[in-house]
Amino acid sequence: MAKIDFLKIFLTLFEVILGISATTHWVVTEDGRIQSQLDSVFQLHQPYDLFTFLEQEGYRNAISALYRQMVTKKAAIDRQWANLESATDVESRLFSTDPDCLLAKKKLVDIDLYASIVTNGSFRRGVAQKDYLLDGIPTDGKKKVPDCKKIFPLDFSLYTFEHLSAMRNRKNLTQHQEKGLIKYLPPGTDLNMFGHQIAHGLLRNNTSWLHLNLAAIYWRVQGDSYNALECGRRAIVTAPMRYRDIPLLTTGGILHAAKHSGEAAIILHAAIDYAPTQSHQHLALGHVYAVLGDFNRSIACYDNCLRLAPTMDQARQTKHAILCEKKLGNYLSSLYLHLQDLLTDLDAYLSQQEEWLNLERRMVRVQATQSSYVKAQSATFQNDGLNSILANRGQSCMQRGDGDSVLSCDVATGSQTLAHNLQMDITVSLRLLKDVESQAQKINEHMIKSNSLHANKHLVSHSSAYTLERGPESFTMFMGPTGRPKYYDHEITVGTEEYEKENWPEISDCKRRSLLLSSSKQYVPVYLPPENKGFATQLFVTELIGINSGQEHSLPWYPPNCQTPKSFDQKYIPPALLTASFGNRLADSSLSHILNGLVKDAEITEIGQRILTATKSKVAAPWVLSMLASLYWRIAGKPKNALDCLQLALDTVPNKFKDVPLVSIASISHKAGLIDDALKIVEEAWNTNSIEPHTNFLIGLLLHLKGNNTGAIYHLKQTLRVDPHWMDGEGLTMLRGLACQEKLNNNQPVSTYFTYSTYGNTGDLLDRAALENWDFEPRCTRGCLLHRWDGCIRTH
Q: What kind and span of H or E run contains 183?
């Protein structure tokens, strides 16, 4: 029995010993020495640290297990991605193969679901042409317009749907001008004359439902929903029951055009109740339900319309477009769900990668480096032998000796190689993550573009919510530039353009034309955009805040105020500049196109709110968002607020991008009349990056103001060498003017008159075409200063 117990204990100990992988740390060399392996996690800086030695085992096991999980997950992600179609591919395949899409011939978003649909009743049985009484109306004198409220007072009626909120608040309704309704009028009809005829018809018979309905159509064409509704209400009240569907169709169309489609549906249903066999009512109701996103009812309405009027192409095309859109929506919804799953897996995978790297760094941090190991063992091994060992591990070593033998190796351990590969894999994964998010965004954009398809609104909101849910930590990739600089690897060289020639411009050309220096003598605002450095600023105020360019930011809108700094860097923003910047100044309106380019068709005030949202959400580098805020305040005419933002940008901008805020500060200093300060600041910006055309252009302006035309010409040429079309050709015009001035001053005393705008005008240039043939007589345009160069006379 004792033997059996002893055997059990022995086997247990033996099993434990076999399980101790740390024994693999030690090896026996050919000469019988016992020493640690070269590439071992147990080769420590402090080999006497037992606790660290024991922790290495746990780190290694955790890394191995985590790596196996990552390999499995990565393979699953690759399979998912390989089997996914892109949103563009899905759409293209559907529109090229699906029968409904082929019959529709166009996308639903390209069909006008607000198309004007009315009828004047002239084709209905019992309505005669003489009932309109549009003949014999005087055409001379002042043209009248139909005033239904004045001609036929009507405060309330049970027939006019007064319970609808849109009807109660009809004074506040707005709609577009429905020019499409003109096609329902007789060919060649003059709209003003048409209104005049209706007004006279109502004077003859103020209860004529035909004229009241025509008056409603007239006001719809004019885009006046209030007067149109007033006429429509009276037409409903006065129309016989068998014709009441006609003014109901008109009134429902008014509410639909005013974007009250739900209430329009109620009125159109009433119209169908009165006349279920009239196809136009079914067509209009189908459009309303399509806008509301109720595709099933919409298709039913189009089917009813086609049964009554089989040749109604508008109903047929819209029906097939809706069926196509439904299929596309189903495909994209399914694709979106798969992308969401893939995004979740990618997030988890990236988290595992980060965890792996953290564990690997902790484990490697306590390891002895290869170089220290080589140094410690150099006396033990012959150099050739050590070189042989390292060579067998695929490592490159060089040996040189000046007395002492020194071995220099480019060492990469197995774990380091794995870490490098993993870093590369993280880059690939981030790129894949970006591709997946891009596909999800395309689906989101498609749904937003189909903003009339309310049935899919949940998908849009879900996608937008996803963008916001990722939180600030997901935007770290946008803290630096995501693209190449605009002038990447650009070298300024002298080209073959006309202005590079030694005798350009000819003196005769200078005398023949009046070359204005308006652009160079006035203040021209300059803003160096972060986009030039590779920052995708358009994304910062659209996709990254979950509000695409096609959407409108929710109200209220607030300006992007920057917190006033505790102190300003007086090297760049001295007290004199702050004093000169207080209060409202003229706006730098010529810079507004930069902000407008970030968000298509958005107001400047809305873009300001977007910048504020992006700043609060921390979607990008703070200094870049501060630059956008400073641009907003410069356009708003508040340079002090702009300087607050520029100081914040200065506090965090990397040195290699410091020229971006410096150019703006120099431009504001120029505006304040602090020319010397502006020149010092912009020269520092030029030292940071001498390629940027904005910087060279501003230096050229300032040097000209200092009287250094030679330097100004040089920097203007540098500007054009980088961007030949600077300021849409104004850069070349300014260069020609300066060159002419220099030539004329150096060659002969010609009385040349130059005009330039008053200080503070924000770059609105004079019409060059109008001045092309201007004679050489002394004159000054209104609001300009006259500068006579030969006599050095200025009129202020």
A: none
- Decide if pLDDT at 516 tops 70: no
CA dist list (Å): 679 to 332, 705, 742: 56, 10, 21
> Which residues, in sequence order, are bridge partners of residue 327?
none
Q: 């050229």: which residue's tokens?
A: 700
**Are 722 and 492 spatial neighbours (Cβ–Cβ below 8 Å)?**
yes
User: Would you list the domain boundaries of the chain?
Assistant: 120-277, 370-410, 498-503+522-726
| Residue 757, helix vs strand vs coil | strand
Q: Specify whether the CB–CB gap between 182 and 116 falls below 8 A.
A: no
Helix 295-308, helix 313-365: angle, nearest 10: 160
Q: Is 144 helix (H, G, I), strand (E, B) or coil?
A: coil
Instruction: Output Rg (C-alpha) for the chain, integer angstroms.
Output: 39
What 3 state SS string does 514-573 have?
Answer: CCCCHHHHCCCCCCCCHHHHCCCHHHHCCHHHCCCCCCCCCCCCCCCCCCCCCCCCCCCC
pLDDT exceeds 80 at position 99:
yes
The Cα 641–Cα 634 span in angstroms is: 8
State the Cα torsion 196-198-203-206 to the nearest 10°.
-160
- pLDDT (tens digit per residue) in 216-239: 999 999 999 999 999 999 999 999
Please, which residues bridge with residue 113 across strands?
none
Length of the chain measured in residues: 796
Q: What is the DSSP string of 624-642?
A: HHHHHHHHHHHHHT-HHHH
Tokens of 770: 């109008």
In this predicted model, which residue has the larger pLDDT, 612 or 368?
612
Cβ neighbours of residue 709 under 8 Å, at least 6 residues apart? 703, 738, 741, 742
Tell me the two tokens of residue 432.
């894949």
In order, the DSSP letters of 60-118 are HHHHHHHHHHHHHHHHHHHHHHHTPPPHHHHHHHHHHH-HHHHHH-S-GGGS-TT----
CA distances for 196 relative to 54, 147, 153, 202, angstroms: 99, 11, 20, 10
Which tokens go with 723?
Answer: 């961007």
Q: Which of 546, 492, 508 is nearest to 719 (CA)?
A: 492
Residue type (1 letter), 667: S
**Nearest 5°: phi and psi at 667?**
-65, -40
H or E element at residue 788: strand 784-788
Contact 198, 215 (CB under 8 A): yes
Distance CA 187, CA 164 (A): 36
The b-or-e profile of 366-389 (16+ CB within 10 A means b, else e) is bbbebeebbeeeeeeeeeeebbee
Q: What is the mean pLDDT of residues 735-762?
A: 55
Cα–Cα distances in Å, from 773 out to 449, 511, 786?
Answer: 49, 12, 19
Nearest-angstrom CA–CA distance, 305 and 56: 78
Give residue 489's region: left, alpha or beta (phi > 0; psi -120 to 50).
left
Per-residue pLDDT for 665 more than 50? Answer: yes
Farthest CA pair distance, the chain:
133
Q: Residue 724 in 3-state DSSP? A: coil
684: pLDDT confidence band, cut at 50, 70 and 90?
very high
Residue 657 half-sphere exposure toward CB, CA atoms < 13 A:
23
Residue 723 to residues 430, 718, 732, Cα–Cα distance (Å): 34, 9, 10
pLDDT at 34: 66
User: Is it true that domain 498-503+522-726 has CATH number 3.90.1150.10?
Assistant: no
DSSP secondary-structure letter at 782?
Answer: T
pLDDT, the chain, mean: 75
Structural tokens at position 641: 């607020």
Q: Which two tokens stand for residue 594?
A: 């930069």
Listed in order, strand segments (DSSP E) in 279-403 are: 396-402
- Residue 694: pLDDT band (50, 70, 90) is very high
The predicted-structure confidence for 724-734, as pLDDT tens digits, reads as follows 888 888 878 88
Looking at residue 735, what DSSP letter applies? H
